[in-house]
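Handout, page 2. Input:
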Amino acid sequence: MRGASGQAVVGLRPGDVSGRGGSVLRRETGRGVVGLRPAGGQGRRGSVLGLLAQGAVLGAVFILFFWVGQGVCGPEAAKTDVPLAGQTSTPEPDASPAGQTSVPKPDASLAAHALAAELDASLAGRTLLVGVAVAPPFVEQDANGSYQGLAYDLWEDVAHDLGIQYKVVEYDMEGLLNAVHLGKVAVGVSALGLTAERETVMDFSQAFYYSGLGIAVAAQTESIVARVLDAVFSQRVLFYVGSLMALLLVVGVLVWALERRRNPEHFRPGRSGIGDGMWWSAVTMTSVGYGDATPKTLLGRVLGIVWMFASVALLASFTAGITSSLTLDSLAGRVHGPDDLHLVRTGVVADSAAEEELVDSHIGVRRYATVEAGLAALVGGELDAFVHDQPILQYYQHRGFTGDVRVLPVFFDPQLYGFAFPRGALLRKAVNVAMLRRLADSDYRAQLYGPYLGKNAIK
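Output:
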């Protein structure tokens, strides 16, 4: 037999001939099948149909993958399980892009019940004693005897969320700290700054307010003439003048030592010559140059050239220092910030965070029982500055000392304020959770701080 190419068919096997009367032939060589072709029209039609069938299968596979890519048969659809008989399907939680499971935000009523459930069982049904110390704007008392303030209002809301029943007991600041330390009260509510010393004897909640120590000074009431005289004879101005005179003396002595032998007519021997040297030093620095005393030696003239150029910078620096000193003293008084406190009479409230900070900084202080007493001493001239928590100073400035006291815009020693608890109190954890949940709401913070501190305190 011969193949389609006219060559003899080699290696013809049974099954190589198919169709009617053996319509398809093929031969094999060492390299495979050669010259394979259909022998009739029906073979061609069969091949076309086969190709169409293969194309249909490939198209169906392509469409299936396309649907999967578009999400029709995606992972979400694959996860939709149909429960079997007697089984209940549980919906899968949604997955975030990072692969973390998102937890739906609980309802407010459910959150309140959850907070109440976190309260220790030993505290349930008990009426707790809450100690307060009046320290506006954190805690204050109105004409009806009711307490209010940003710290007290926050405690009321936290106690409501936890379902706590409580009774208020009032102390002064030192008495409140002792009551908390000895466990006489379950919680202390006031302007309680978190300090290392207090933390050693009691526990604190998370901080609900951030501020620092402020400085109050008396408003300027004396005449402008008196203020100018005080500024002229202030310690800073006297220091500048004394430094300049010392420098003139040094340069005068040097030029006299160089000129007294070669130029005795201008720089006389003895004390008079030293005076001549200081006179030359002064007129050279001010660029007056009368010419009545001039150096003639080489070293003397070199010193004169150096002093001329140095005097330009020294005189400009001296003038700027005197001017700024007079301006600051006449406009802002003697205290401009914490660095000036060691130079003036400074008052604090006894056993306060301000006293601890200033004593540690080796600044002498005068102690007063209350903020009102300290500010009254400031207005009366007994003090030059009074240091206390800045929000409390601002509160009293607007309430009782308007026009008499000025609170500087700077503050130092940043402080955190919180509720105080006896050591190991079971109540602290639940209070922290409830308080942080409240303060996470910006609208609530505005409602809490705004009436007492103004819009600038809302952050």
